[in-house]
Design brief:
- The chain has about 150 residues and is an alpha+beta fold.
- The chain is built from 4 helices and 7 strands, in the order βαβββαβαββα.
- Strand 6 and strand 7 form a beta hairpin.
- Helix 3 runs antiparallel to helix 4.
- The protein starts with a strand and ends in an 18-residue tail after the last helix.
Amino acid sequence: MSQVIRVYLNGSRLPDVAVWQAGLTAHGFAFVLDPSVSLPTHEGYLPVTCEGIETGFEFYLDPVSTAELAGGRDQSATFRWGSDPHALVAASACAAVLTALTDGVFFDAEGGEVVPAEQALADARATRDEGLWPADLPPVSPPKPWWKFW
């Protein structure tokens, strides 16, 4: 099952990856984004590394269709990942920082709630600091082929 965070923002305030990266660093996150990504045109998997561990999440920008939630913002940045706990931490931190950089609206689709940027940043730090990154978790390995189960 996928987990989703959405950040509603004004497209005119969308930073480039270098500014987003600087924001991650300024807010105390050691994640490294792929510098070759062009956010306005990117669709799909966005790789992220931290302390030698590679993870990532799907990242999409779409026009807003939920005007009442978006507060006048015209773009929705969607962060989607599966069961990888490293991706959870990376997506949460990246979404929180993007919210802060763009004066966006952080929407936790799982909980169905809007979270202020400062709270989203605090929650991402707490998730990271609760042992969900990186040493306390084994790397996620691909499932075994069916013929190797017995």
